[in-house]
Amino acid sequence: MKQNRESIIRENLHFRDNWHFLLDIDDPRTHYALRVVQMIATIIIFLLTYLQHVVVINFQSAGANDALTMFQGIANQSNNYYFNQGSNLFSFLNRLMGGNLWSTYRYAINSSQFMQDPVGLKIMIWSFLLILISAFCILTHFFKEPYVYRYSLAGAIAASIFLILTPLLIHHWANQFAINKHLSLWQANQIFSVDCLAYFAIFCSLIVLSISIVRFYKHF
Length: 220
What we know:
About 25% of the residues are buried. It is built from 9 helices and 2 strands, in the order H-H-E-H-H-H-H-H-H-E-H. The chain has helices spanning about 1-25, 30-50, 65-80, 80-95, 105-115, 120-140, 145-180, 185-190, 195-220; strands at about 55, 190-195. It is mostly helical and about 220 residues long. The chain starts with a helix and ends with a helix.
């Protein structure tokens, strides 16, 4: 019984010590933990923006023609045996890769068609700025002192503002797109929308901003 009591006391002391260093803002281990959390959060924000999990665009619903579909249509109309076989091969590879064959190239082609509309141009520029700002937040971790504190805070503020404004602006642009194209708001929301992961990105940006403020004043 005495040994059990002593082991419980040791475990409680160990648990208390661990929380003590996390709550002690001047502890070097706390500084390291906060920097790690900040780095992970910025990487998550970058991945969500880069992989189009913040602003989701259905290019086909917007009237953009998929580059692979265009190639297959041309090949089928040519009545050439080799072109038809190539078209069938690309279709098979596309199904095998879950519809991601030439994904980057096809995304670029669809984007260029989508940007012919003024609203589409605004959305693509905004999406690009989200990626750019989140990438800048990651780069600030490799700056030297004292620049790391200033630019990290500036990047965190910009990322938070842009991500918080994203749902509001996308909804506003959806209304504009529906008016320009004579569509219903439901149809416009099917073309481009804000993913639920966008709110997780906003949460991460607020974490990055909080840590950046602490680092700016504490210089760690």
